[in-house]
Amino acid sequence: MEQKRIEKVNYYLDIAEAVGARGTCLRANYGSVIVNRDEVISTGYTGAARGKSNCIDLGYCIRRKLEPNSSGGARFDLCRSVHSEQNAIISAARKDMLESSLYIVGKYYNSEKYNKGMEGQYVKTPDCCQFCKRMIINAGIEKVYFRVSKEEYRVTNVQDWIESDELLEGNIRL
Q1: Is position 77 within any domain?
Q2: What is the largest CA-CA distance in the chain?
Q3: Cα of 169 vs its chain's centroid, Å
Q4: Would you place residue 108 in the very low, low, confident or very high pLDDT band (cuts 50, 70, 90)?
Q5: Confidence label for 110 from pLDDT (cuts 50, 70 and 90)
Q6: Residue 137 lies in a domain
Q7: How many CB atoms lie within 10 A of CB 24?
Q8: How many domains is the chain built from?
Q9: What tens digit of pLDDT does each residue of 10-52 get?
Q10: Which range of residues forms the domain containing residue 105?
Q11: 3-state SS assignment for residue 44
């Protein structure tokens, strides 16, 4: 039997997926890996701030409790978690992140209560929230890879986020 070597992008996405399994969100967890010149610089997963109670331990999502009809991309101010991208960025030195790549995998975990039937599935349209996009831009990260399926991914050049300012284009209502 011939051994097939895994493609490098999927190698780093597999690491991000393993990191995300440590997350504490009851809805969906993300794992992030920052890589520069083929060296892992930092990792991060979705979870409560250090020393704070997390949703798994509490047994409920405060965001869902207070805003049961909010969409997945809204009311982050109610969320206990720090996003995986944010955790990876704050664990790395900016000089190490300049011109680096960020690998992100979003997957539904612990979902029996909030995402019935989606346990273990990849988030179909993974993206970063506006806060994380700003942090990624300021960190000097050059590309972001999002896993779409076990073998497929999407890549975004961070420069595209800079050039298409959603606030100026009217994509976000004030």
Answers
A1: yes
A2: 59
A3: 25
A4: confident
A5: low
A6: yes
A7: 19
A8: 1
A9: 999 999 999 999 999 888 899 999 999 999 999 999 999 999 9
A10: 8-169
A11: strand
Best CA proximity match to 16, nearest among 142, 108, 106 = 106
pTM: 0.89
| Interatomic CA distance for residues 143 and 50, integer angstroms | 28
How far from 59 is each of 25, 62, 137, CA to CA, in Å?
10, 10, 34
Contact status, residue 126 vs residue 147, Cβ threshold 8 Å: yes
Q: Domain of 82: which CATH number?
A: 3.40.140.10
**How many of the other CB atoms lie within 10 Å of CB of 112?**
10
3 within a domain of the structure (yes/no)? no
In a domain, 132, yes or no: yes
Residues 97, 41: contact at Cβ < 8 Å? yes
Phi, psi of 6 (to 5 degrees): -70, 140
